[in-house]
Every structure is written in structure tokens, then in C-alpha cells.
Automatic annotation (TrEMBL):
<feature type="domain" description="Bulb-type lectin">
    <location>
        <begin position="24"/>
        <end position="137"/>
    </location>
</feature>
<protein>
    <recommendedName>
        <fullName>Bulb-type lectin domain-containing protein</fullName>
    </recommendedName>
</protein>
<feature type="domain" description="Bulb-type lectin">
    <location>
        <begin position="156"/>
        <end position="261"/>
    </location>
</feature>
<dbReference type="InterPro" id="IPR036426">
    <property type="entry name" value="Bulb-type_lectin_dom_sf"/>
</dbReference>
<feature type="signal peptide">
    <location>
        <begin position="1"/>
        <end position="27"/>
    </location>
</feature>
<dbReference type="GO" id="GO:0051707">
    <property type="term" value="P:response to other organism"/>
</dbReference>
<keyword id="KW-0732">Signal</keyword>
<dbReference type="InterPro" id="IPR001480">
    <property type="entry name" value="Bulb-type_lectin_dom"/>
</dbReference>
Amino acid sequence: MAAVPSTLLLSTLLSLLLLHFPSPSAANEGNLIVTGDVLQTDSQLTVRNAVFVIQNDCNLVLYNKGTGFQSGTSGLGHNCTATISDYGELQIKNSIGNIVWSTPSFTQKGEFAAILQPDGQVGIYGPALWNTRLIGGYSVENTVGEEKINKEPSTPNLLFSSEVLNEKTKLASRDYSLEVTERCTLEFTKGNASVLWASPTKSITGQYCFLRLNHHGQLALVNDYNRIVWETRPAYADGVYVLVVKINGEAVIYGKRIWST
């Protein structure tokens, strides 16, 4: 794996790439792909200071303000695509579907996400642990502890381990949003009116609540008395996890991170 050289014109290059290359299909936001999505030739993932693109020479390249990354597959195919398998492999396939490059396989089958992170690196997270289509949570009365409970989300549709979502703030993707309400309820909504899912906490008193994702993949709704009023079940393995609000109408916890550039 070779490094992409930095230049004094990197900021200009990133701007030109953002203008030139299309984003991925409407299946997800432009900063991630999940199992089943396809990043077509000359399509990209983007964040403010980085671009991750499958170029027309079949090379998968990360342009950022650091050393970047490239797959080293230039010239190994035409009309190449990038996908993420149900074993967490980020794969490059040529025009006839042959795999010309891949990251290591994970042991467990499931849905995975390749995310261009706000730090300009790419991480693979999975498998999916919980989503708003499942019950998956329960009410408790426990203290939270002292570790990192004040870092707000750095990306509108993502919440990483140690970040918090405060009352009356949202994660959002197109028409869908996940919000901590004044009633200390976590609500997943479409538009301004339709509540698709809500945490079972309406009868529990609390104000100034916030949502936190810990380093065991556990999502917790916490009130102003530092009590957990609702949480998902933990994955137990320590690592970096991510909660994603997706444009297909669900919020999903992926993790832990199994690969990164």
C-alpha cells in the first residue's frame, strides 16, 4: 500500500475533485457506503477535507491533508467499482466482476459500513448491532460514570463512540432525523410530523437529557441526574462504534471499527 504525496496545492486539488466527481448513488449520504451499495467508476465519498474516489484507472484513492491512501490497483481493470461485502471486505471489482483488491475479511456475516470519517480517514464498521426497526432497548436506572460525555457530533448523520447528542439537537439524513426531545424521549422521525420510532421513556421524568454512544457499542439516553433512562444492549468488545442515520429511513449502530486507512 503506497502513500499519496502531499503538495502545496492539495486544498485546490480537493476542491477540484469535489466539483469533478459525482457522489455515490442515492442509496446513502455521500460520506459512506454500506453492504449492497456500489461506488461506481469516478464516484466518490466526500467530507470537508477529504475525497475517497474509485478512479477510471481502477485505483481507489484517498485524498486528504495527510499521507492519504491508495489501493495500488491502477491499470488492473476498466469500469471498476468499489463495494463492501457482507463480511466487511472493501472490494474493488473490474468490469466482469472479478475482485482485484480487498481488505481482510471479518469472521461474522452481516451489514457493514465504509465511512469517510471527519478526520479524513476511511474506516470499516460492523456488523450492524441495532437499528430503529428493532425493539432492542430497555429502561434502567443506573449511573453513567465520568468518561467523556461532552463531545458533540462532528458529522450531521453520524455519532461516534464518546460523542453525545444533546436535547433538541438532531442527527439527520435527508427527510429523516433522530432527536432527543424535551420530554427525555429519543425520536426517529420523517419530516416534521411522522414519528417512526421512539424510545419507551415517556413516563420517566427527566430534563436536559442527552444521547451517548460508548466504546462498547451501547447507546444510552441519560437525564440531568446522570441516570440512564433507556439504553441498547452492549456489544462488550471495546472499540470505536458509530450510529448512522440513513436516508432509507433507519438509524443503525455499526461496529466496532475493523479496518482503517
